[in-house]
Amino acid sequence: MKILVCISNVPDTTTKINFSDDAKSFVTAGVQFIINPYDEIALTRALELTEAQGGTVTVLHVGDASTEPTIRKALAIGATDAVRVNAAPRDAYFVAKQIAAYAKDQGFDMIMTGRESIDYNGSQVASMVGEILDQPSISIVKVLNVEGTTATLEREIEGGKEVITCPLPLVVSATEGMAEARIPNMRGIMSARTKPLTTIEAIDVPSLQQFVKYDKPAARSQVKLVAADDVKGLVDLLHNEAKAI
What we know:
This protein has about 240 residues and is of the alpha/beta class. The protein has helices at about 35-55, 70-75, 90-105, 125-135, 185-190, 230-240, and strands spanning about 1-5, 10, 35, 55-65, 80-85, 110-115, 135-140, 145, 150-155, 160-165, 170-175, 195-200.
């Protein structure tokens, strides 16, 4: 089995977020970057499948040279090799086009991503890649098994779960429950230094959207405590201060 796992380079979840004075760019100084957690779940499941059935796992990332430590971590976790598309990932369409351009002639049985990146939370790339490559795309998958040339997938829907069978090749986006992310061991860290990491140039893609401004959410207001027996006070607050959700 030949699997491509697409990974994003995102700020650590504990990072303090700041923007430039003109609010047009994210300030990266002092920020610790990690593999997008959902992508790491996809990577782990891909490794489990190839370890059980044989095959290779290639990781692909769209980003500049500063993101290579994140790619090397994916190699340390167990990926066979890696590809970096040398370009800033300006939007989901741009990233999806880069992935599809690389993957179209590589003969991958499966392309995997996380359900979304934790910085932009767009949840668009997997479905776009499937559309561009004319392959089935199944998003937010919790369970993934492969037997022969058929994948069985499970995802949550309102009121229950949905089980899908689909022939390979296909595109899958992973969510919590598909696998438990792995911590690289020393052997993996050492071997990652010599595993192939190929850099390719990006294809030209038209810009379909533009980020005009970044902003932080409004600060949380102070909570108001109401005594358990103060029904009138609670009603007054609900009528006069509470906002509809």
